[in-house]
Prior knowledge:
2 helices; 0% strand
Amino acid sequence: MSKTSISSRSADNEMLRQLKEVQGLDKENRAHIFTTIDAFIIAHKRKAFPHCKY
């Protein structure tokens, strides 16, 4: 297995661990976290693809 595959798998495992922790939070805090993630994704898309509407 390549180093990229191993580090990618580690990153995926870390993300899954973090999402499991978020699942354990109350509804309001989960909503805040996912709203923040959504805003970050939209900001990234706007920067990468400024001609598209989101």
